[in-house]
Amino acid sequence: MGQPEAVLISHWGPPQSSYETGDVKFLSWQNQRNIPIAGVAPTYSTSCVGTNCTTTSYGGSPGYNLSMRCTVIMTVEGGIVKSWRWQGNDCKA
Q1: Which of 3, 17, 18, 26 pairs as cysteine with 7 (C-beta 3.0–4.6 A)?
Q2: Cα 24 from Cα 75, distance rounded (Å)
Q3: Are 16 and 92 in contact (CB under 8 A)?
Q4: How far apart are CA 89 and CA 31, in angstroms?
């Protein structure tokens, strides 16, 4: 905070997107990744009465991809970084 925009760009690299209104700029950087989450196999129970057997399955769930993302937005006024904010489920301090 309080540094020139050029210092921000030298540390973070060029932003993926920007928006300007008057002398205020909003610069944003995004990252996204997917984490594969393994499914859980069902459990089975077999019960027999004489020669008649019944198998029952319980639970289980399919696997899926968990989408992780973070967007950081820096506000630059008059060429100076004034504030920042983040949104997403994969942002780190």
Answers
A1: 3
A2: 7
A3: no
A4: 11
